[in-house]
Predict the 3D structure of the following.
Amino acid sequence: MKFGALLLGLLFGLQMFAQDTVVTPQNKSNPIVLNKGNSGGTKPSGLSYENEFSMGAKISTSGWAIFGDYTQDVNYDKKRVLYFELEFLKNPKETKRVNEFTIGFTPPKPFVYGKQNSFFNLKAAIGEKRLIGEKAEKSGFQISANYGGGFSAGFIKPYYLEVYTENPEEGSLTVPIRYSDETEELFLNAIKIYGASGFSTGLNEISVVPGLFGKAGLNFDWATYDDFVKSAEAGLGAELYLKDIPIMIQENNKPYFVYLYLSLQFGKKW
């Protein structure tokens, strides 16, 4: 008899626990609903926020990037992610230097000796975020595994240098040149180099090379119960292209990049 009463009490308690729990953030008037019921995962469906859009910046051992992503809930444990990125990559051997001497009143500009091309890309990918753990205090804190992959359009742009000329035209002491068999001797003559040309020089000479990329990392979200996305991520990325990417002249250029990255992003939930 006592066991039956205990069982009935336990079932009643579980039913009360399964009902929706409403939490109102300190700085928001709209309540957040927890435990809305199962939606295919092993846990409740979680927060009432079902969509996120955020933008951020990333630094890596091979360069830097800006990115944006759109996230949609699949269930409590999993989110689907659409990811876009503009990234600038470099060769590990790239080192900026400045000539110690100058001609005229304008000081020399920094340049990378031995560089023949700049490389950047546009990426589009699909991925997933899977919840690993959470701690519901104040705004809430979550750790998720974030992974995905997709396509990359790589852009190879000639790297121009401003070099001193002995026959200045229209009063200019320097002329822009790119690396070629004809300009190799002057391009690699460090004494003749004034500095790097602006990024816009050579944009009309860009060539495109397609590729694939993937990434996997840990995402740390410290605003789980807030209307805003505030998260950081650390992980590993890799890219593979259809041909070698000729960034440096005298180095072994390869068709792939492998790097560690760290990113920070902010956005909106609804």
Remarks:
- The radius of gyration is 27 Å.
- DSSP finds two helices and 15 strands in the chain.
